[in-house]
From TrEMBL:
Protein's name in the database: Flagellar biosynthesis regulator FlaF
Keywords in alphabetical order: Cell projection, Cilium, Flagellum
Gene of this entry: flaF
Domain of life: Bacteria
Species for this entry: Rhodobacter calidifons
Pfam families named in the record: FlaF (PF07309)
Amino acid sequence: MTFHSAISYARPEAPTRSQRSVEYDLLAQVTQRLRSAWASRTTDFPALVRAVTDNMQLWSTLASDVALPGNTLPAALRARLFYLYEFTVHHSRAVLDDKASVEVLTDINMAVMRGLRGEGGGR
């Protein structure tokens, strides 16, 4: 826990963050790590493995959430997000096998981040 987050927890007047905001921040963090790890993959392959694994774990959590019966997202959106999870797992394996780049994974994350910010457009 960082100093600032500890202060936020301790202050009752601190605003609570929305789930969308938390999801956005997590996607932003893992996307940045994917990009950074990809850039240094030849000198630090374990960092790429960690970043790709963390991205898959994040998508696994999102998929679990959209699969819950009480999830209030529209069914079509839930299905698309679950498909993206499946694609992410498949493509991540190709990245780790040195058969693909992380570009598609970061593009997917960025698209979801735009949606979380209400910038989805065309839906």
